[in-house]
Amino acid sequence: MSSQSQPLHSLHSLADQLSNSDFDSIPIIDLSDASESGTRRQALAGHIRNACLNAGFFYVKNHSVPTETVAGAFQAARDFFDTTSEIKQSVDIGKSDNFRGYMALLTENNVPSNKGELHEAFNLGLDPSLGLAQEGGSAGELQHSENLWPSDQVWKGATGFKQAVLDYYSAVLKLGQVLFPLFALALDLDEHFFDEKTRFPAAIMRLLRYPGIPPEQRDERIPGIGPHTDFECFTILCQDAVGGLQVQNKKGEWIDAPYIPGTFVINIGDQFARWTNDIFVSTPHRVLPPTSTRYSIPYFFGCDHEVPLIPPSTCTSDERPNKYPEIMTAGAYVKSRLDETYTVSKVAA
Ligand SMILES: O=C(O)CCC(=O)C(=O)O
Ligand SMILES: [Fe+2]
Question: Where does the record place the Fe2OG dioxygenase domain (predicted)?
């Protein structure tokens, strides 16, 4: 099906109505109908629309990413973070021009008045070996480039690690490509609206490990990850069963986003909020330091770097003029946000 979608309800009136309501839980959306056409697909897009206009967060089930692929990625994360600091330092983010590689504990800080965050990370982007990355890009934009992989010489698990991580990366990339047309329908756009804009998607993935600490040793200024919004269009997050992720509603209350087996958590990022003239909401979230080691894998999905973030016609009106008249490309926007957040690690590198 490719036709311009029929509006589900008036997008603007629903956006106004939902911006005046609040949420105290996060909806679970069944993606079984993602491959359907007609009314079932429209109904699915309607559920996604309500979630994006209200909480900015939802779970998806029946997403078709194989369980073994997810388990393989978590095992790879455990194996990597359990190696030596020498192996981790061999791929330190300080060696990357592009935010790729390993970040040690406390080197990230979403809230400048804090003292760092209690997680370590391994960052990667669209890997050239997948044959999808675009060369070059304009000055000031985020560039596609090589990832930093540990070599076989320093770690005998290196090849298996890369394979498991890229298997997961490719599977979640496909899920992102299933979601973009549904977001288009949710915005009353032709479902192919994003196709040309996501040929070389800015898809940055992170393996995260939060060490467990006893509650009495928690320092308020050292969160697991401090309150923040994500930068890209949307995030596909897989978390283990430990818990600690919380989402802030409009009243300022922190709502738990617990582990639900077999699901991913999807949340809207600032690029989508800006692009949709704030019809989609990008919601603050944080992770409390867990009492036992926690692993998670966020995957940040953006559009091609050179795409200008101009709100589509369905997102503006006389009553809702464009709030962001300064036109930025997606790549320049994300780079400016990464530069702000990653100052700590660059100084430390
Ligand atoms: O670890 C999590 O559950 C959330 C991570 C997160 O919010 C992020 O990396 O942006
Ligand atoms: Fe986040």
Answer: 201-303
